[in-house]
Amino acid sequence: QFPFGRRLPCDIYWHGVSFHDNDIFSGQVNKFPGMTEMVRKITLSRAVRTMQDLFPLEYNFYPRSWILPEEFPLFVDEVRVMKDSDPSWKPTFIVKPDGGCQGDGIYLIKDPSDIRLTGSIQSRPAVVQEYICKPLLVDKLKFDIRLYVLLKSLEPLEIYIAKDGLSRFCTEPYQEPTLKNLHQVFMHLTNYSLNIHSGNFIHSDNANTGSKRTFSSILCRLSSRGADVKKLWSDIISLVIKTIIALTPELKVYYQSDIPAGKPGPTCFQILGFDILLMKNLKPMLLEVNANPSMRIEHEQELSPGVFENVPSPVDEEVKVAVIRDTLRLVDPQKKKR
């Protein structure tokens, strides 16, 4: 580690959070300029919605979304019109603060007139989305998938998807949202950093049990039930590619302003975390994209009040070590020299 930067050139620079070093003239950097801004909830929603307007059938993997506060009146109007045309429609919406991460500040509402919504959005911009009510359940629990995607270059666009990912489970059996259970985050929200505080969270040393499992273990179960796992994978790959295509135009603008063409500069690559929810019919839906997915392979365990120790997490290790190893192989700077 070089907390104060490094003067001698390196082959690969690995930054913790974002692209920030103006002294790098060569080599490869594990971050793209502007990526953190591009995958924030509002920017991502805008980019995907632009594509939804152009190609509605191709981009139907992202829930209907409105940006608050600016689209609040539009949100109220559209929900009213939809309810008038279909009185049986009883939607739920999920409000996600723009800069929030790890489940911070997310809550569910049944109606746009919810007081919390009108009170907080002026000070805290957010995206409100239609909540996906028919998730695929495993062991009666809702879960999402964290997939690791390597964006190796923008020109030409080169994308790799890790063959395995993590399945992160809720810790209370799922029920469709009602006014009585809207606040039960351990039932509705799959965020690992929320569920780890639940008394039902199970740290597992086995890839196919517990509150965090490998995605491959879920695919095995689906396959044994007769599901078409090949089609599921191809739908997921298509979702990833189309999402990155939606982000690419603005990413190129950031890239060219930081690393102008014709001048010496580093090339960039980045590991992204895609959070995907499977619906009951096995259709994958994009929840969000994370520019800095956690690469930790241990979890904190409280031994006594206030005393923690790090315990290895075999499931994280199995997936994440492979992601980092294969990334370094793919960007191997020595390859050209051999």
Automatic annotation (TrEMBL):
Protein name listed in UniProt: Tubulin polyglutamylase TTLL11
Originating organism: Calypte anna
GO MF terms held by the record: ATP binding; tubulin binding; tubulin-glutamic acid ligase activity
GO CC, one annotated term: ciliary basal body
Gene3D superfamilies referenced in this protein's UniProt entry, alphabetically: ATP-grasp fold, B domain (3.30.470.20)
PANTHER family reported in the protein's UniProt record: TUBULIN POLYGLUTAMYLASE (PTHR12241), TUBULIN POLYGLUTAMYLASE TTLL11 (PTHR12241:SF154)
The entry's keywords: ATP-binding, Ligase, Nucleotide-binding
Record InterPro entries: TTL/TTLL_fam
GO process annotations (BP): microtubule cytoskeleton organization
A Pfam entry, by short name: TTL
Origin superkingdom: Eukaryota
